[in-house]
Amino acid sequence: MELHKLRAHEIKDLIASKQVKASEVAEDYISRIELVDEKLGAFLYVAKEEAVDEAKKIDQKIEKGESVGELAGIPVAVKDNISVKNIQNTCASKILEGYISPYNAHVIEKLNEQGAVVLGKLNMDEFAMGSSNETSAYKKAKNPWNLDRVPGGSSGGAAVSVAAMETPLSLGTETGGSVRQPASLCGVVGLKPTYGRISRYGVAAFGSSLDQVGTIGKDVEDCALLAKNISGLDRRDSTTVNIPVQDYSKTLAKDIKGKRIGIPKEYFAEGLDDEVRKSIEEAIKVLKGNGAEISECSLPLSEYALAVYYILGSAEASSNLARFDGIRYGHRSKDFDNIIDLYFKSRSEGFGPEVKRRIMLGTYALSAGYYDAYYKKALKVRNLIIQDFKRVFKEYDAILSPTSPTTAFKFGEKMNDVLSMYLSDIYTVPVNIAGIPAISVPCGMVNGLPVGLQLMGDYFREDVIFNIAYSYEQSTNYHKMSPNV
């Protein structure tokens, strides 16, 4: 049996019924990684021995009749900015090369409690700054549908690993669409939860008021299973909220009769690829056929979202990344004259161009002469964008849009055009600014490349967007398609 072709919930049932062993599942996925990852570049570290040892412990518990968690024996790969004890955590940056995490992130603790098996650490844009996985300091992750195309970013490795069947589930992180956009470009399902739904403890900080851990799977049911088991209050992260976590798997139903879905006219204006638009329009017809009530709405302040995001995100990044100074951990320059020279050379040698660009932007926006003109004004506009969403959610259960304005673009196509690269996140960034949940599901193919449909929900209503996404998915076959790798 080719276990790597199964969904996570199918593997869960097989292990629970003792039809397969967790160790067999882990070994099958490791063999798959060894077969295809050299040309894909999804993994920065493969935990071969650790994964098999952990899987054997799960087998022993099952044999003894001991209780095991909901994710018992299911492999999960983890983005390389989420701390896993005794495994590297480089954030795909030279400044953290060789750094081994001494502790587990909260989400990893939750995975361990539920018996999941960590397969390894995944490639990403350096410090999660990028939309194409081209800023990784080590190697590029490649889109499994076309190796000449980017997989999206910053969680490029997380999306590639699931799409190429190297893992059934993966954990990524989001600051401005870094789970949903690569999920769209690679033809998998990606969830960004409500801000505060999942703990950020143990996740390398980029933009603390924007960052969230997200889940990626081959279908909605898999995403829902993983999200449920890593969500909830964490006393070490003061931004998490003590709101009960629903069993998202029980909210999945094809019938969405009476669900009200808004389509913001601003998201279907200039810049949206015509073929992507057609795929979204076909998806709208499917949802209407399943009983949804769909009509046009307006989010007029969305046009300011990118500007707000790059001011706030860069400002927070310049503050968060100040800790990487060549003294406490990470890269230290070997040739320096004094403490200032050490800071300067260590950071110059350790950080890549995109990270330096955002640190400089953020430092500028926070400086005494420009704080009011940029940072303070961005905070005010952010609040207005939040009010925009709250107004729309008084009338609608969900908002629908494309996830990305285009399908996967070629390597190098946008690296020298920074604004064009930033526009790749035009439909995803408003979600992070507002802190609402959103999910991307495959909804079409254009010239052999996947298209993603985005569904946005009200605060802590992941159950609603899971329900609508599942309804669409069960009426189409796009989630069943896999690249020929």
What's the arrangement of secondary structure elements?
Blueprint lengths: L7 H9 L5 H19 L2 E4 L1 H17 L10 E5 L26 H8 L3 E6 L33 H8 L5 E6 L5 H7 L2 E4 L19 E6 L2 H11 L29 E5 L9 H16 L3 E5 L7 H16 L18 H12 L2 H14 L4 H23 L4 E5 L15 H5 L6 H6 L3 E9 L2 E9 L4 H13 L11
Parallel strand pairs: 2-3, 2-4, 7-8, 7-9
Antiparallel strand pairs: 1-3, 4-6, 5-6, 5-10, 9-11, 10-11
Can you describe what's shown?
The protein has an 11-stranded mixed sheet with strand order 1-3-2-4-6-5-10-11-9-7-8, sandwiched between helices. The longest helix has 23 residues, at 371-393. It has helices at residues 8-16, 22-40, 48-64, 106-113, 156-163, 180-186, 220-230, 274-289, 305-320, 339-350, 353-366, 371-393, 418-422, 429-434, 462-474, and strands spanning 43-46, 75-79, 117-122, 169-174, 189-192, 212-217, 260-264, 293-297, 398-402, 438-446, 449-457. Helix 2 packs antiparallel against helix 3. It is α/β, with parallel strands linked by helices and 485 residues long. 38% of the residues lie in helices and 13% in strands.
The low-pLDDT segments are: none
> If strands are numbered along the chain, what order do they take across the biggest sheet?
1-3-2-4-6-5-10-11-9-7-8
Give the averaged pLDDT, no decimals: 96
The strand count comes to 11
**Pattern of helices and strands:** HHEHEHEHEHEEHEHEHHHHEHHEEH
| Count of alpha/pi helices | 15
Biggest beta sheet summary: 11 strands, mixed
- β content, as a range? 5-15%
Helix/strand-derived category reads alpha/beta
Radius of gyration: 21 Å
- Helical content band: 25-40%
Shape: globular
Q: Report the span from N to C terminus.
A: 18 Å
